[in-house]
What we know:
The structure holds two protein chains of two kinds. Chain A is of the alpha/beta class. In chain A, 36% of the residues lie in helices and 15% in strands.
Amino acid sequence: xxxxxxxxxxxxxxxxxxxxxxxxxxxxxxxxxxxxxxxxxxxxxxxxxxxxxxxxxxxxxxxxxxxxxxxxxxxxxxxxxxxxxxxxxxxxxxxxxxxxxxxxxxxxxxxxxxxxxxxxxxxxxxxxxxxxxxxxxxxxxxxxxxxxxxxxxxxxxxxxxxxxxxxxxxxxxxxxxxxxxxxxxxxxxxxxxxxxxxxxxxxxxxxxxxxxxxxxxxxxxxxxxxxxxxxxxxxxxxxxxxxxxxxxxxxxxxxxxxxxxxxxxxxxxxxxxxxxxxxxxxxxxxxxxxxxxxxxxxxxxxxxxxxxxxxxxxxxxxxxxxxxxxxxxxxxxxxxxxxxxxxxxxxxxxxxxxxxxxxxxxxxxxxxxxxxxxxxxxxxxxxxxxxxxxxxxxxxxxxxxxxxxxxxxxxxxxxxxxxxxxxxxxxxxxxxxxxxxxxxxxxxxxxxxxxxxxxx
Amino acid sequence: xxxxxxxxxxxxxxxxxxxxxxxxxxxxxxxxxxxxxxxxxxxxxxxxxxxxxxxxxxxx
Lengths: 456, 60
């Protein structure tokens, strides 16, 4: 191992390249991760389960393979963290109970990571028993890392591993990425398999990635995306390219959303959008104002109806009388208006109508973007930076429409607020334009730059 | 509860409260009404939406 190698300074592409060239071994990469865990975990509190002996054995096998000239795939030796909601063989899935037994097999996305050569380092924190984890923000440990993919955001932001699996049902994936100053993608619904993912709300659950850069995320997406016979909701798509080929990409046309979102943003976030839109324009992008159709407001309303999916999952496991406090707490636990249990009372006609409105809105937004030639819609991933305190993981409201619609969305660095906390930018596009959205986002990321790592 | 003609928030919240009381035996209190109101607002908005007849539901 070169004396200067440190996982904290390396992207996925850096590590994969160094391993492929024989400059570092997967075992040496993992030892650097373990050093980083030792240095940061007392403050970040971002891992639920680590089985480092097992990880070391896996890395040793990968090391032997690399030395014999065999690379399993584009991620050979890359360390990855996995959100607690995904099954990992040999690890318990704690959402099934704190005494849950080890899972017999991997979630499909985990299996695909391994097939590409990744080393699973461990599982990352989430709220359990409706309580936020003790996970802290790497930019200021008095602030939340976001959630529910709390640990997945914190360990990437804290430069412990360069990429993590996260998940988003409301705003659980991109919010932690933004709060922790790094990049993320919530792909089109159906692009990443949900097999082996603990269900929240089936029609809104999305496997999500958090990473340092959009190029890293694109490389990992190329290893994971596509049809899975174990998840009938996955899409039959052409394999995604591993690289973004920015050299052949012209300056994009960005639509800044001027309704529904600005009134929900804090002043720092409003300013960040204007400042960064100006930077993009100065770099050659065409930046235009966009007003979403009035019906877009229905996306928030319809998302309320889909909480009934969570109720059906829990049916039988909560065979007890419902009390008023259950209704109230079911609202508080998801951090949104409405209520999980209250959705059980709503007639099926409303659920069906909500699903029709999803089709309707998808058509409207697709037409709007096509007619105006917009490559990506720009808004914010959260009202502001990560709130102070650990009693809440922040506000998911801004992500809810995109999760309901299943649109692909990304987040990248948008600077910092007056309190020094990272502010993300949020880009959205229409279904099945994930690769194009990653390219557009990467173009913007190149103009805006990455946030310097935290002094953790 | 009907879908059309459009229901008001008051109609929806009263309907939800009645259902909650009948199904779970919870007392209809101001706190219950407050808890159910966001769902009632969602029902009212969805009920009022003029969705074209030929739009099919997207379940996945």
